[in-house]
From TrEMBL:
InterPro entries: SRAP, SRAP-like. It comes from Primorskyibacter sedentarius. The lineage of its organism: Bacteria, Pseudomonadati, Pseudomonadota, Alphaproteobacteria, Rhodobacterales. Belongs to the SOS response-associated peptidase family. GO terms for biological process: protein-DNA covalent cross-linking repair; proteolysis. This is Abasic site processing protein.
Length: 223
């Protein structure tokens, strides 16, 4: 699972790294985001007829949710992660995987271990910078769902997860988000489903490390 990540990369750097088409950056003067939680707004990069567009979407595909006790409509569910092995079989993911893949810019992600209190571990890529920017493999959709006030809709995204590598496994033994190599961005956005699916592997452990740990470390601010 990935329920928390950061994106502290400057907007200009994101435009260059993700080859955003001139005039298609909808983020304005994007501020650093040291803690992004489900249902928060954060930048994604997607392919349009005009080129690569960068814009803020809400994290987590939404679905109608009802109370198990009363049957009444409650806050919609937010599906912030999609398992790589379910993309071609689960109804929530199939069409988005085929037609609406996106890049999710990030600078680190967090996994918690233990409870009362939990210890939060922030993972980043190794490099010359403290937090080299990267992109998760993501998908986007226009979520339509019911609430107690009636039907609602919004554009949302989700992050794809795969098996954990040797750096993440001691903290979260099962899953980690898919991190794409820069040379694979175009394949993820533009190629057919088979080529895109082949990218959904754990990132090399030797190229990652833990950059922050602690009981209260629910954000990863710019150093």
């Amino acid at each position: 699972m990935c329920n928390l990540y950061s994106n502290t990369t400057a907007a200009q750097a994101m435009r260059q790294m993700f080859d955003v088409t001139a005039g298609l950056d909808r983020t304005g003067n994007a501020e650093p985001l040291p803690a992004i939680f489900p249902k928060h707004m954060a930048p994604v990069v997607r392919l349009t007829e005009e080129g690569r567009e960068m814009l803020p979407l809400s994290w987590g595909f939404r679905t109608t949710n009802k109370s198990k006790k009363t049957g009444n409509l409650i806050m919609p569910s937010a599906w912030n992660n999609a398992r790589a092995d379910k993309l071609r079989s689960a109804g929530l993911w199939k069409d988005a995987f085929l037609n609406r893949r996106c890049l999710v810019p990030a600078s680190s992600f967090c996994e918690a271990k233990g409870r009362n209190p939990a210890t939060y571990h922030w993972f980043a890529l190794k490099g010359d910078d403290p937090r080299p920017p990267f992109a998760f493999a993501g998908m986007w959709t226009r979520s339509r769902y019911m609430t107690k006030d009636g039907p609602e809709e919004c554009e949302t995204y989700t992050i794809i997860t795969t098996t954990a590598n040797d750096v993440v496994r001691p903290v979260h033994p099962d899953r980690m988000p898919v991190i794409l190599k820069p040379g694979d961005h175009a394949t993820w956005l533009e190629a057919d489903a088979d080529a895109a699916f082949d990218l959904l592997e754990p990132y090399p452990a030797e190229e990652m490390h833990i950059v922050r740990s602690g009981e209260g470390e629910k954000s990863d601010p710019v150093d």
